[in-house]
Amino acid sequence: MHTPRRVVSLSPNVSMILFALGADEIVVGRTQDCLPAIQQYLRVWHIPEHTVTQRLQHWQGLPVVGAWPLADRESVKTLQPEAILTSGSGLFGVHEAQTFGVAADALLHFDTRTLHDLDQHIQQIVVLLNKPQEAARVTARLALRRDEAQAQQRERSVPPTALLPTTLLEYCVCIQYDADPDRRLADPARAILVGGHLAPDLIRLSGGAALFTQPGDTAKWVAFDDIRVAQPDVILQFDCHGCPTARKHPIPRRPGWSELAAVARHAVYPLSANISDPNPCFPAALEELIGILNTYAAQNPTCKG
Is position 64 within any domain? Predict the structure, then answer.
C-alpha cells in the first residue's frame, strides 16, 4: 500500500499516536474524543498548547464522523480516505472495510492490549506513514520516562523474600450502563468490572501482582465472592473517571467489602489516570501507580511488597 495522503482516525488512542508522530496534515476526519485525547497527551508530556496552536486548530476543524464501531459510514466516504485507522477489542474484518468504501488493506485496526502491542502498533503506523525519524523520537521518550518511573519503584525498601502485593483494579461497577447516570445500575456486592489491557503490565512494572487479569486480557466481570477469597492487598479505584454511580457505592459501606484486609488497612486508592488505556500517555499512569504502591509499602512494612 502506498503512503496515504488522506487518513480518517476512528480512535482517540490512534489520534494520539498520529499527533505524536506529527502526522496532522494527512488526517481528514476524527471522532468526538480525539481532540480531548490530544489535549491529554499535551498535559502528560508537558507540551504547552500555545506551542502547537496551528496543529490544534487543524484537529478542531476536522469533520467529526464518530468512533468505531458506530462511525457514520457515509460521512467517512465523503472524505475519500486512502486509509482508515481505528482501535478496540476484537477484529475488524473485510466486511467492515467494505462498508466504508475502502479496500481491506486500507483499514488498519489495532487491538492494543499490552505494552508490547502498543510498541508494535506504533511501528505499524510509522511504516504506513513513512515517518521513521519521528518514530525513533517517540519511542525513545516513552522508554526514557518508563525507565525513570521504574527507578522510583526500585528505590522502594522491600525485603528480598517479600511477595508482591496483590492488586485489584476496580474499573467499573455498573452492571447496566446508560448515558443517563440516573439510569445506571450497580451491585458491587455481587460483581465488579476488573480492568485489563495495559493494567496488568503497569501493575507488574510498579512492583505489584494484578488479580484476575493477565497481560493480553480485556476487562472482565469478577464476582465479589471470588474477590473475598483472593483477599487483595491493594484496591485501586478508577470507576470510569469518577462515575456518579460508583460514588453512590463507597467501598467501606458495600455489603461484605469490610471483610477485605485491604479495606481494613485503608489500602484503597482512587486513580486519576486510567491505567488500562493503551496509548502513549501510559507513563503518567505508571508514575501514579508506582507512587501508590510505594505509599502502600511505606504504610504497611510488615505486609507484602
Answer: yes
Provide the H-helix boundaries in the chain. 12-20, 34-44, 53-60, 73-78, 94-99, 115-129, 132-154, 199-205, 224-230, 239-242, 244-247, 261-264, 282-299
Please count the other Cβ atoms lying within 10 Å of the Cβ belonging to residue 240.
Answer: 16
Q: Domain limits at 70?
A: 7-111
| pTM score, whole prediction | 0.91
Contact 198, 288 (CB under 8 A): no
Q: And the C-alpha cell for 261? A: 484486609
Q: How many beta carbons lie within 10 A of that of residue 215, not counting itself?
A: 19
How many structural domains are present in the chain?
2
pLDDT digits (tens, 9 = 90+) for 190-249: 999 999 999 999 999 999 999 999 999 999 999 999 999 999 999 999 977 667 888 888
Q: Give the H or E element holding residue 209.
A: strand 209-210
Q: Which residues pair with 237 in a beta bridge?
A: 170, 270
